[in-house]
Amino acid sequence: MTFAEQVIRYNRNLEYTGLPLPPGIRVMNPFRENALALELSEAFYRKYYSDDRPRQLILGINPGRFGAGLTGVPFTDPKRMESVCGLPFPGKPAHEPSSVFIYEVIAAYGGPEKFYGDFLINSLSPLGFVAVDNAGKEKNYNYYDSAALLAATGGYIVDNIRTLKNLNITRDRCFCLGTGQNEKFLRKLNEQHQFFPHITALEHPRFIMQYKQKDLGSYVDKYLAALRGATA
């Protein structure tokens, strides 16, 4: 089975198996809610992962509504899916700042073929969460944004990391996107379960785009040094 087919099977089988969520929070599963996300992501993985090469694992937080929530591919919004990956998105165009940064890194690394030939991006929680207010309006919500949600999702996240490790993943290290709560929780889990000998944490793309955009080039260089060091 190619790496592509492994990831496609993983995505098709995704379902939330954690404890009940706190009131006002719901699971976002693009592969069950959006047929386009499933179809587009399968085309993406078959384009870049139809081989048996091992990949280094990069773990984000959880999918957002305007990136993986639409395309099924972490940190890849519809604009990048079309303009960089060459896969048409027939829905309404959408823009995710984190995707902009990641694709700056991908371009500097040598392009999507080279980058995705070495790395797989996923998340501690491969399913997203949204908070729903009394008017029914939704906003992105991270698994650590409340103690109750973190407690509910902890076991599910552990199971997910174990499942990802069973793909053709290089197990000597993983990369963590987020040097705050995401890193803190992943390191805590890693101490308990010994998933990886080494974890390299990098500032989250959303943080860079929101607060450090004037230093974007420096952060791209930091990412490149870490990623190239792992594949040298």
From TrEMBL:
Where does the Uracil-DNA glycosylase-like domain lie?
48-228
**Gene3D superfamilies (UniProt xref):** Uracil-DNA glycosylase-like domain
Q: Which InterPro entries match?
A: Phe_SMUG2-like, Uracil-DNA_glycosylase-like, Uracil-DNA_glycosylase-like_sf
Q: Which organism does this sequence originate in?
A: Pedobacter yulinensis
What name does this protein carry? DUF4918 domain-containing protein
Pfam families, per database record: UDG (PF03167)
Q: Report which superkingdom the organism of origin falls in.
A: Bacteria
